């Protein structure tokens, strides 16, 4: 893995080669094993994932390899050996630190590079941890922090309210759409009923016409019968 860990290894030449990644040649960080047919090959997770992006094969045996084929190393023996490797802090130069506890050291290291406590409100300062108190005495952002924090919280509350209102608006729009669909269905049904009614009226008119014709014919027959008498 790339040397951005904040430490360097002490007497790196003496570290067992079986604990080193064949890609970066450094001791494993977050080691994973590749499912190869010939032999189980171990790499740093970051190293092998970056390798697979460029070339989806094992760098040792050239077997096809995907990130899904990687399995984390959970055996306590190699993990413990890796954690016990001695390192030197690049910030404060303290040596003899176990790699497994370096993060704890880095959280307290007086020379570790940190951001201002007001970096979240855009103070650009970065520097050694033991310089922070000196910076805070002249930091123009720090005195404004309570006010800005309150404004940020108010802004977040307003955003939450807007999101809630947008959600409610979306629900109302869905309800309105459903009502419009129901109205359209009812109008379609009403239109169908009107068409049926119109057809019935037409049929009634036809029957009335036929009845009148029959009545006329009946009257004619009566007249003819009367003439015969």
Explain this structure.
- The protein is mainly α.
- The protein has a domain at 7-111: Herpes Virus-1 (2-Layer Sandwich).
- It has five helices and eight strands, in the order βββαβαββαββαα.
- The chain has helices spanning 45-54, 76-83, 102-108, 132-138, 145-228; strands at residues 7-9, 31-34, 41-44, 70-72, 86-89, 97-98, 113-115, 126-128.
- The strands form three sheets. A three-stranded antiparallel beta sheet has the order 1-5-6, covered by helices on one side. The protein has a three-stranded antiparallel beta sheet with strand order 3-2-4.
- The longest helix is centred in the last third of the chain and has 84 residues, at 145-228.
- The termini are far apart.
Overview in brief:
Residues 21-62 form the RING-type domain. This protein has 229 residues and is mainly alpha-helical.
